[in-house]
Amino acid sequence: MSDINVIPEQAILVHVNFSQHHTSEDLSELKLLVSSAGVECVQVVTASRSAPDAKFFIGSGKANEVAELVEQTQATVVIFNHSLSPAQTRNLERQCLCRVIDRTTLILDIFAQRARTFEGKLQVELAQLQHLASRLVRGWDSLDRQKGGIGLRGPGETQLETDRRLLRERVKALQTRLAKLEKQREQGRRSRQRAEVPVVSVVGYTNAGKSTLFNRMTHADVYAADQLFATLDPTLRKLKLKGVGEIILADTVGFIRHLPHDLVAAFKSTLQETRDADLQLHVVDVADPRKDNNMQQVAAVLEEIDADQLPQLIVFNKIDLLEQAPRIEYNEYGQPTAVFLSAAKGLGVDLLEQALSQLLSERFIDMVLLLPPHKAAWRARFHQLHCIVSERFDDDGNCELTLKLSESVWQRCIKQSDGVLENYVVSTAVI
């Protein structure tokens, strides 16, 4: 039995530079997307236009050039770094005699490869079907041909109409199943809110190092690689911060320029974790020359999902590539606004935890408690919160605890003890 080597698809990339009135996509980012999809780039075609051509997007001359290159290189697919209309896609396929896909279809394909969880696969399938709905016409040459033959003719429904009906039914079924999963997620969110556990959501441009930072902080094993959309499914882990106690750190999907609207809609329940967080960690690749534009793109997606009004801490990652030292930047009120670190090298992660503790606990309390022996469970609880400065026992077995903890954590403890803890306070001082 011989081994079969899987030969990657070979693609011709097409990139068009438009005038200032049209958004020009980044060619290097397209190459990263193609590489992430497991496709080999054999040729790049560039062009400059003032506006897209209605029939071929790039004009008839460039379309002929691409068709000739397809024949010469035996490429199996042509990938455009732009969004194509169904008519433009169909015309280009007839001209090039091979598959033609646009940027949106490429991103959807990468998401389909990356999805691992049941919910993630359903979300990607829903996005793909919604995108396919307007392009179903491409699969049929004779749209008026009715299905079946002798003895199989139906009530006159064409094959295209049948496919559209089946597609609508599948979309409806997917939406129903995702709605049930969304209710389960909502129950989990409500339980965390009842326990008053702070949630910190990690957001940022794809390949900025979010999963690497997430793994570094939580000791998780989320897949991380130097490629776009290395991870897709959201991951939640507990993290203990000194003076704050347990928090939930949520790793979410990376954003990108012109993230397909169908994808944003399909992942609405997943992105809810970002919208309902107490704080956002916006991870930025500080070594990327396009970092300012990338931050704007992330802000645009956050605005689209109504998550742009949340408190945010900027994390400038990969400082080791610029040989910078880790540090924290503060505003005029003494609050952290940015942390410079290297998640891969572990430099500055302690500074990030320090900044998180400060932001999640606006005010700290210095406190002395005198706990009787039958309240020893609360001594263990304060040890879990990492807020004990010192402790000592008297002859009667009472434990005197000197604590430093956030006001919100203290209020949560009072609530959980039904107010009993207030009876054991010896002294307090707000700092």
Automatic annotation (TrEMBL):
It comes from the Bacteria. Keywords: Coiled coil, Cytoplasm, GTP-binding, Hydrolase, Magnesium, Metal-binding, Nucleotide-binding. Gene3D superfamilies: 6.10.250.2860, GTPase HflX, N-terminal domain, P-loop containing nucleotide triphosphate hydrolases. PROSITE patterns: G_HFLX (PS51705). Pfam families: GTP-bdg_M (PF16360), GTP-bdg_N (PF13167), MMR_HSR1 (PF01926). Transmembrane segments: none annotated. Residues 198-364 form the Hflx-type G domain. Residues 157-191 form a coiled coil. SUPFAM superfamilies: EF-G C-terminal domain-like, P-loop containing nucleoside triphosphate hydrolases. One of its GO terms (molecular function) is hydrolase activity. Monomer. Associates with the 50S ribosomal subunit. NCBIfam families: GTP_HflX, PRK11058.1. GTPase that associates with the 50S ribosomal subunit and may have a role during protein synthesis or ribosome biogenesis. Belongs to the TRAFAC class OBG-HflX-like GTPase superfamily. HflX GTPase family. This is GTPase HflX. The gene is hflX.
